[in-house]
Write a structure and sequence with these properties.
Elements (H helix, E strand, L loop, with lengths): L5 H20 L4 H15 L4 H7 L12 H15 L1 H20 L6 H16 L3 E2 L5 E2 L9
Antiparallel strand pairs: 1-2
């Protein structure tokens, strides 16, 4: 089982939950927030066990507004460095969660679609690449996501 430091756990939690929250906040509404929260939580059940435990910690992590996608990128870099399969699983689950959150309340608003599209960009940019030596390495983040 892969182990993460306390700081790594915090980054993973804030990256994942902050990103899902960002999609939800893109089209706010009181009742919608409950539906979207449930949809996101349901999707996160598909995470590998060690990541599910990290994300399931009580309380919402602190994420500076506007830094959600940067934290997601950092989280992916951490997970990829320790377990490439878990990194791909994290990408798949985060995208599915974001899509399900966007769809949870009366269809997908344009603002939600725009955020999900930004998430897709981050997931692609941070995907591991194979170098000529055959070693898989995370793609370095060169710019801060907007």
């Amino acid at each position: 089982m892969t182990e993460y430091t306390v700081d790594e756990q915090s980054t993973i939690r804030s990256g994942v939950l902050g990103t899902i929250s960002l999609v939800s906040r893109a089209d706010p509404g009181f009742i919608a927030a409950f539906r979207e929260s449930f949809a996101g939580a349901k999707a996160l059940r598909a995470l590998p066990e060690e990541l599910r435990q990290v994300v399931a910690e009580l309380g919402m992590p602190e994420v500076v507004a506007g830094q959600e996608l940067a934290r997601l990128s950092d989280a992916l870099t951490i997970v990829d460095a320790k377990d490439a399969e878990a990194g791909q699983a994290l990408r798949d689950v985060v995208l599915r969660a974001c899509e399900q959150v966007a769809e949870a309340s009366e269809g997908v608003a344009d603002s939600e679609k725009a955020v999900v599209d930004q998430v897709r960009v981050i997931l692609r940019k941070s995907a591991p690449v194979e170098d000529t030596s055959g070693v898989v390495r995370p793609t370095p983040r060169t710019t801060s996501p907007a």
